[in-house]
Amino acid sequence: MTAQRTIELEGLPDRVRLFGQYDRNLSAIESALKVSLHADGDRLLVAGEAPDVERAERVVRRVLSAAVDGAHITPDDVRLAIADVHERPQTSEVPRTLLRTQRGAEIRPRTNGQRAFVDSIDHNTLTVGVGPAGTGKTFLAVAMAVRALKSREVSRLILSRPAVEAGEKLGFLPGDFREKLDPYMRPLFDALSELLEEGIVNRYMERGTLEIAPLAYMRGRTLSDAFVILDEAQNATSDQIKMFLTRLGAGSTMVVTGDATQVDLPSGYRSGLRDAANRLSGVEDVGVVELDESDIVRHPLVSRIIRAYQAKIER
Question: With left for phi above 0 and alpha for psi between -120 and 50, is residue 225 left, alpha or beta?
Fold first, then answer.
């Protein structure tokens, strides 16, 4: 049975926020839900088979609410809203914007796994995020850290990685301390440069508001009133991760991220990431979030590459 619904677009100052450039958001809804959408003044007409029209209306109203509040809806937001309509019908909101990049792009969780990761950081003192390359673990963790600093929830950011290729000893590399660290910490610098002006990053580092250091430099410290991230934790042993976790001080939030399938530790050393996730699962005030191929937001080929390698391992 065919049906038609009318959705009023009152309060939407700019239809591009909802429709997307060249109406690509509307095209995504039409393609996924087998309906037709037509803008008529301040109304959007939805036509198609009755069940499809009902689902499409719920999707449109969900993203319309976010657009009215100022969000610029993307096809990723549309896909997440469509998934919610099927899987979480009681959810009525598009994920909130965490920050804007220096180019004005809105940072929001773009998949269900990313949303779970961000929600865990919001509601727990410690979050462990495990997932393959391209799932946004590092970038979202840094975005949440910058947001916490800007809102004065913490007074400093501490970002760390194991420097496994150099056995945590950086002295043989040329240059000053930051130049020695650069090959290992570059992904963290890249994430920060997306979210903060370069001058601000340098000023934060000079003041001690921002610290980027290898994991070995965390030993013996108490990290208070800080947002602390350990990235690439699959390249840390169980003892190193335990050492890092027990640095947690009052007023701090801690995030540990890694990909258990990409371990670069020397022969004879075992990664402690999976062990930490298993031990901490169910511990109060700790969130353990598993991301998978469906959460990959890089080039679509990345998902296929990871599946191909996983299939090879399982055979």
Answer: left
How far is the C-alpha of 54 from the C-alpha of 35, rounded, in Å? 10
Summarised one tens digit per residue, pLDDT across range 65-81 is 888 877 888 887 888 78
The one-letter code for the residue type at 239 is: D
**Residue pair 113/292 in contact by the 8 Å Cβ criterion:** yes
The C-alpha atoms of residue 125 and residue 118 are separated, in whole angstroms, by 12
CA distance 188 to 196: 12
Query: Is the Cα dihedral 200, 204, 205, 207 positive or negative?
Result: positive
Angle at 91 between CA 40 and CA 16, to 5 degrees: 30
Instruction: Pull the structure tokens for residue 304.
Output: 């296929």
Give me the amino acid identity at 276: A
Per-residue tokens: 131 = 């997932």
Q: What is the DSSP letter of 13?
A: S
pLDDT per residue as tens digits for the range 99-131: 877 777 788 888 889 989 999 999 999 999 999
d(CA 152, CA 149): 5
Query: Which residues, in sequence order, are bridge partners of residue 133?
Result: none
Q: How far apart are CA 156 and CA 190, in angstroms?
A: 18
Map tokens 């609410």 to a residue: 65
Average per-residue pLDDT for the chain: 85
Select from 307, 283, 281 the least CA-distant residue to 296: 307
pTM: 0.77
At a CB cut-off of 8 Å and minimum separation 6, what does 38 contact? Answer: 44, 45, 47
Q: Name the amino acid, one letter, at 97.
A: T
